[in-house]
Amino acid sequence: MAYKHYQIDGIVKLSQKVFESYGYTPEESAFITDVIVTADLYGVESHGVNRLALYTYGINIGRIKLGVKPEIVKETPVSATIDAHDGEGHIASKLAMELAIEKAKATGIGLCVVRNSNHFGIAGYYARMALKHDLMGLCLTNAEAMIIPTFGKKPMLGTNPIAVAMPAQPVPYYLDMATSVVPGGKLEVYAKNDKPLPQGWILDKDGNACSDSHEFIKIRDSKSTGGILPLGGEGETFGGHKGYGLALLVELMTGTMSGGVHGDMVRLKKNEEKCCHFFCAMDYGMFGDKKAMYDSFSAYLERIRESPKAHGQSRIFTHGEKAAENERRVRKEGIRINDATMDEIKKLSQDINLDYTKYMIEV
């Protein structure tokens, strides 16, 4: 499937128009859009403009409720529990991370959980919000069950990403990873492009290795057996049980701690999401000399980058470098969108009487 590059400013304006058409304020629409576009800037196509149709579809079927506001239902000096009331995931998450940051500034640490939410984009966006305040950020979320537990064949856990951001020079440490071998959104992109999957990503409904990207879509939509393998792959030989354990840890910190639901109950009904999130902001200076920690960690990352390379390799990356380099490239070249996603944009634009040609401008 062909790809074309489009101007970022036009995509930003179109996305904001889309969300405003559903009744979101200009400020809310701008924030949701920023999360979407940031994913594309960082090279995470699965969670960028590709997700625009998912959010509007969620609104149209009532999965994402309109006219609701996230509510703080319990609060302490260092923590808060927020009920999103099935509203837009980005909005509840913005409130939660901003509150965690505020508490970290006052006490050294802020912890917030959210229940009854919806998809919120890339987890790393919220972890990185802490960087602007010279804080360390952490974000976890559960999701619709698509991961098979080790030795099982029925999805019981979400792809459950873990995101961490820590100030450093010249590039902040930035980890944003699924606890599965691959995020579900990436499999959607493979299906859109009609591409086969690498062996070792999913099992079919009978528990056999499978490379058919469309098979994953069938498994997900039918809630049948089969699904994505945990990080480390099938069985225990390469640590699949560790990926399974990490996914379960995320379920503990999100579904359990928030009083919400776990992955096997997320999006159990077509018109209900119910996912849960965890946010943490930490003033790492509460442990000692903040500048000394910053300098020490930055120097360590540099030693890693400069350490001996494996045969045939010219560079060692530390987490966050690729995202920063991809952002510089995308700002010059525009956002890369495949034909199937472009067709979705055309359709949703028509549904709200928006002339997409004014905004989707090829580079």
Account of the 3D structure:
The chain is an alpha+beta fold and about 375 residues long. The protein is about 40% helix and about 15% strand. It has eleven helices and twelve strands. The radius of gyration is 20 Å and the shape is globular. The model has no long low-confidence stretch (mean pLDDT about 95).
Topology of helices and strands:
Blueprint: E1 3-6, H1 8-21, H2 26-41, H3 52-60, E2 71-75, E3 79-83, H4 89-107, E4 109-117, H5 123-129, E5 136-141, E6 162-166, E7 173-177, H6 184-192, E8 202-203, E9 209-210, H7 213-222, E10 227-228, H8 240-258, E11 275-282, H9 290-305, H10 321-333, E12 335-338, H11 339-351
Parallel strand pairs: 3-4
Antiparallel strand pairs: 1-12, 2-3, 4-11, 5-6, 5-11, 6-7, 8-9, 8-10
Helix pairs in contact: 1-2, 6-7
Task: For this entry, give a set of tags.
363 residues; alpha+beta; seven-stranded mixed β-sheet
Shape: globular
Count of alpha/pi helices = 11
Q: Taking strands numbered 1, 2, ... along the chain, how are they ordered across the largest sheet?
A: 2-3-4-11-5-6-7
Q: Describe the biggest sheet? A: 7 strands, mixed
The string of secondary-structure elements, in order, is EHHHEEHEHEEEHEEHEHEHHEH
Portion of residues in beta strands equals 15-25%
Distance between the termini: 18 Å
- Write down how many β-strands occur, each being a DSSP E stretch of 2 or more residues: 12
Whole-number mean pLDDT:
97
Radius of gyration: 20 Å
Residues in helix, %: 25-40%
Any low-confidence stretches, pLDDT <50, length ≥5? none
Classification by helices and strands = alpha+beta
